[in-house]
Amino acid sequence: MRGMLHGEEPTATGPRYRATAVRNLPAPIQARLPILVGGGGEQVTLKLVARYADANNLGGGFDAVRRKEAILLQHCETVGRDPAEIERTVGIGTVFIRDSDAEARRVLESTFAANGAARPWEDQPAGTPEQIAERLAPYIGIGYRHLIAGFPSPYDEESMTRLATEVLPLLEKA
To answer: Please, which of 27, 45, 149, 174 could form a disulfide with 137 given CB 3.0 to 4.6 Å?
Structure first.
């Protein structure tokens, strides 16, 4: 990937693929296009992140992210990479913000009901701005500054706005 982005024509062969003189045209505008690897596979994916990635995206709740962060740090040490070079991002699920926890849960349930077979994560962030900030603050505490929220149809403009205008200021204080 890196060779393609730098104008080279790399060749690679593996057990499931073969690529010969691969080109990336047009070339990226940026001198060094960052590579984000999404995933937290402990034996392969996080090793790849430690060696090659500029950023990594994890999910699965705070306990899983904290555990995978420790594994990523071990892989960085093994390959001699400064973990500060890797931007950390986390998928936090779909956020539902209202003035009461009960109303946020009602909106969560109606949103997922409108999406047919879509199943909400078990730990969807739903509640008041203060409850959401309290729930997200631990990610900030371990260095995850980019929190990625999803907003499926029907789009919940109120939660989007309140995440940016009410929850973010609370997290900046954390």
So the answer is: 174
Pull the structure tokens for residue 115.
């999406």
CB within 8 Å of 37: residues ≥ 6 apart: 45, 48, 49, 52, 53, 55, 56, 57
- C-alpha neighbours within 13 Å on the C-beta side of residue 12: 13
With tokens 């989007």, the residue in question is: 160
Domain co-membership, 27 together with 87: no
Residues 88 and 6 in one domain: no
Helix, strand, coil shares of the chain, percent, nearest 5, are 45, 15, 40
> What number of other Cβ atoms are within 10 A of residue 60's Cβ?
16
Tally of domains within the chain: 2
Give per-residue pLDDT as tens, 12-31.
Answer: 888 888 889 988 888 888 88
